[in-house]
């Protein structure tokens, strides 16, 4: 009866440590990364200017309410399909200074070729 108590205490301590570790991991994942909502519609991205700080990692939350679109930022090696009804999360790290174009890379209609925007990366 009595010997069970220390074991139980150890288990509770272990559970608490695991819970704390889980919370810390989740916080560091989310808190450091700014989330930027980007809507792709015919034939514009809103916003079409995204300003980042060198070294910053952001999560782009992409939606396309009308038709299937693409989001490609080839200077940063990322692209994603953006499908109506879904939110697509795309992680992007600003690895270099300057002004870089992103564009729609899924044909979406008459204005597709002009559908682009810019990511501007500034010094910290
Ligand atoms: Cu397009």
Architecture (CATH level 2) name of the largest domain: Sandwich
The rounded Rg comes to 21 Å
Treating each run of at least 4 consecutive H or I residues as one helix, how many helices?
A: 1
- By secondary-structure content and strand pairing, the structural class works out as alpha/beta
* The CATH homology group name of the largest domain: Cupredoxins -  blue copper proteins
Task: Describe the structure using short key phrases.
single chain; 124 residues; alpha/beta; 2 domains; 9 strands; 42% strand; globular; binds copper (II) ion
Structure, described:
By secondary structure, this protein is of the alpha/beta class. The chain has 2 domains: 1-32; 36-122, Cupredoxins -  blue copper proteins (Immunoglobulin-like, Sandwich). It is built from 1 helix and 9 strands. It has one helix spanning 4-31; strands spanning 34-41, 44-46, 49-53, 57-63, 69-73, 78-82, 88-93, 98-103, 116-122. Strands 2-1-4-7 form a 4-stranded mixed sheet, with no helix packed on it. The chain has a 3-stranded mixed sheet with strand order 3-9-8, with no helix packed on it. Strand 1 and strand 2 (44-46) form a beta hairpin. It is globular, with a radius of gyration of 21 Å. The N and C termini lie far apart (61 Å). Residues 11-28 have low confidence and may be disordered. The structure holds copper (II) ion.
Give the SSE layout:
Blueprint: H1 4-31, E1 34-41, E2 44-46, E3 49-53, E4 57-63, E5 69-73, E6 78-82, E7 88-93, E8 98-103, E9 116-122
Parallel strand pairs: 1-4, 3-9
Antiparallel strand pairs: 1-2, 4-7, 5-6, 8-9
The protein binds copper (II) ion (CU).
Copper (II) ion (CU) binds at residues 69, 104, 106-108, 112, 115.
């Amino acid at each position: 009866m009595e010997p069970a108590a220390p074991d139980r205490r150890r288990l509770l301590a272990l559970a608490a440590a695991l819970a704390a570790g889980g919370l810390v991991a989740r916080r560091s994942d989310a808190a450091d990364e700014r989330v930027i909502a980007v809507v792709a519609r015919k034939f514009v991205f809103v916003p079409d200017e995204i300003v980042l700080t060198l070294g910053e990692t952001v999560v782009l939350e992409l939606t396309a309410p009308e038709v299937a679109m693409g989001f490609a930022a080839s200077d940063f090696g990322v692209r994603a399909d953006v499908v109506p009804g879904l939110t697509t999360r795309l992680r992007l790290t600003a690895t270099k200074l300057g002004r870089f174009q992103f564009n729609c890379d899924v044909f979406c209609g008459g204005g597709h070729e002009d559908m682009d925007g810019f990511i501007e990366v500034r010094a910290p």
